[in-house]
Amino acid sequence: MPAALPLAAFYFAYFAYVGAFTPYFPLYLSGRGLSAAELAAVLAMPQLARIFAPTFWGWLADRHDARRAVVVMACAALAAGFAAIPYVPGFAGIAALIAATSVLSAGGLPLVEAITLSTLAGRSGHYGPIRLWGSIGFIAAVLAVGAWLDHHASLTLPGVLLGLALAALAAAAALPSGGGPASHASDVAHLQESTPKSVWTVFGAGFCMAAAHGVLYAFLTLHLQRLGYSGKLIGALWTLGVLAEIVVFFYLPALFRRFSLSAILIASLLAAVVRFAAIGWAAAYLAVLVLAQLLHAATFGAFHAASVAAVHRLFPAGAHARGQALYSSLAYGGGGATGALLAGWAWERGGAGLAFSLAAASAALGAALLIWRRPARLGEASRVR
């Protein structure tokens, strides 16, 4: 497919930026002299922005048939933010800059998801082989930037992030337009009819899964450090999870042919219950931890792909961008922020056991919601080719 190359290139470049930002930006903030509380507040800005900003950008993109243009703007905002951050003084200035950058850039990835699925024209199982390039980019950046910081100060990180944001900007300019037809009255009526049972059930399950992962992203590294794992081994365990995710993306067409979207979502949530309980209570055993990280294939890879496909199926053609943006806002933004905040509370009161038990409970709640109100339109295999 001619459009697959620019889509894969964007995913690679964008998630290379994510692979540099997520694990290493806290080091930069610490190097700038921010306290733990200030550091946490800055890191909460992107998650908080995802609660409301993607919905606005998705609406704007659908209304003006400007999906690619909004993605280009989002990547340009990232580049401008990291070009400016070395010159912004103090916690308040850094927090304001990251907040503004997060609001302007929050719509980029959900819109690319909409462009990808529109370009695939119903063959949602082929999303995986394209999206896996994002996972490859993430791994490449984690390893490369980690090696860079072994020999350079953390204060050099904005230059690295600027370069990666510029690469994502160049890739965004080459994306297909991915525009869909404007919403018709029948589309709107269908959306209103489907929202109570189907859309909100999927959104609720996504919120629960994102909240569970909020604990993981906030405290997995700290948990493993306290158990005595070396930095190299911790990095290897993170990489193992992403490699497992890549395998799922590669085999996604076969997975979607064999199982319904609702079955994949439920199985992924049940796998998350096992994974987070194991991390919370048995991470001292390396073999258990390895198996738990391999479950990232289900808890992120399969769940993410199935939820994106589910949103695409449940929303009418003229509202695909808004659907993906709304899912990103409520699930990843709201769920991720809620999970991180609850994790901090639980960590202070009961340590890793309580924090990861809450993650497991959140995943169990999401599975129960889907089992109780399983959307009928997600009950058949996709029969992709």
Write the layout of secondary structure elements.
Layout: H1 4-31, H2 36-64, H3 67-84, H4 90-105, H5 108-120, H6 127-151, H7 157-173, H8 185-226, H9 231-250, H10 252-258, H11 261-282, H12 286-294, H13 296-314, H14 320-372
Architecture overview:
The protein is mainly α and 385 residues long. It has 2 domains: 1-176, Growth Hormone, Chain: A (Up-down Bundle); 185-374, Up-down Bundle (Growth Hormone, Chain: A), CATH 1.20.1250.20. The chain has 14 helices and no strands. The relative contact order is 0.16.
Give structural attributes.
0% strand, mainly alpha, 14 helices, Growth Hormone, Chain: A, 2 domains, globular
**Order of helical and strand elements:** HHHHHHHHHHHHHH
The shape, in one word, is globular
State Rg. Answer: 20 Å
CATH topology of the largest domain: Growth Hormone, Chain: A
The CATH class of the largest domain is Mainly Alpha
- The beta-strand count equals 0
Terminal Cα span: 13 Å
CATH architecture of the largest domain: Up-down Bundle
| Helix amount | over 70%
How many H/I helical runs? Answer: 14
Question: Which regions are unreliable across 5 or more consecutive residues at pLDDT < 50?
Answer: 181-194
β content, as a range?
Answer: under 5%
Which structural class do you get from the secondary structure elements? mainly alpha
Task: Characterize this entry briefly.
This protein is mostly helical and about 375 residues long.
